[in-house]
Amino acid sequence: MFKTTVIAVASCAGMASVSLAGGVNVLADANSTATFDTNSGQISWLVDGIEQIFAQDFFFRRASDTREYRVDDVNLSLDGIFTSDTNPFTDTSHDALAQLYSDGNGLQIETLFTLRGGTAGSSNADLAEQITIRNTSNASMSLSFFQFVDFDLGGDFSDDAGQIVGGNTAQQADNDFSVAETVVTPAPTLFQMSNAVAMSAFLNDNAIDNLDGSASFAGDVGWAFQWDITLAAGEQFIISKDKSIVPAPGSAMLLGAAGLFAGRRRR
Fold first, then answer.
1. 242-265: b or e for each residue (b if 16 or more CB lie within 10 Å)?
2. Per the confidence metrics, is the pTM higher than 0.85?
3. Rounded to whole angstroms, how far apart are CA atoms 151 and 55?
4. What is the CATH number of domain 16-254?
5. How many CA atoms lie within 13 A of 96 on its CB side?
6. How many other CB atoms sit within 10 Å of the CB of residue 89?
7. What is the arithmetic mean of pLDDT over 219-237?
8. pLDDT of 113-122, one tens digit each?
9. Among 56, 86, 155, 161, which residue has the least CB neighbours within 10 Å?
């Protein structure tokens, strides 16, 4: 069962709504909406009514674990949800979502998403993300944290190509749209860009997995970043990232798309 403690997140508006039993939360700003399910991660990102993402999930593995677990899995409890409007002078929609998860033994993972849409018809949108990992126990804690993303730009996947640049920036494009995600701080320990279905499968299997450093893929693109962390008692670790979608005709060729486009198994 989910626990229901409200977590405090600053808001310009001072307005918030709290979901008492988890479920689906939709953020909205200008031409964009982003949908998050407390049981399955981010499940939608519409920009000017066009679907751009298939899934985003976070995973973790403690030193004592024999596999990775999704943050929203039953292995952690959902302690609180808080939504707010960070630009109340331009609209009345909630555009920020904070969620707090814990394992009851000192590990807390808080995710904060802030959506910024563009003008209608611009095909521009931005999603800022901050993940705070805390050790509230009295002993040191070692763990690995993963972010997995599966974008289907324009609502499809067969014409996508991507690359990871500098170890901290993922770029993906098709003939109409381009998305870039930059890890602002800290740099990931490992990364991988490859087939989205295969990556999701190994992160959800019953084995210990680490990313392999692959930096490009064409077809059903997915990417992941991994952070290997040791936290002292009472210490926290903050990951800051940003995703931006822009229109980009012909951008798949600019990324040097090569190889056969892979098939896809849908949920």
1. bbbbbebeebbeebebeeeebebe
2. yes
3. 7
4. 2.70.98.40
5. 22
6. 7
7. 98
8. 999 999 999 9
9. 155
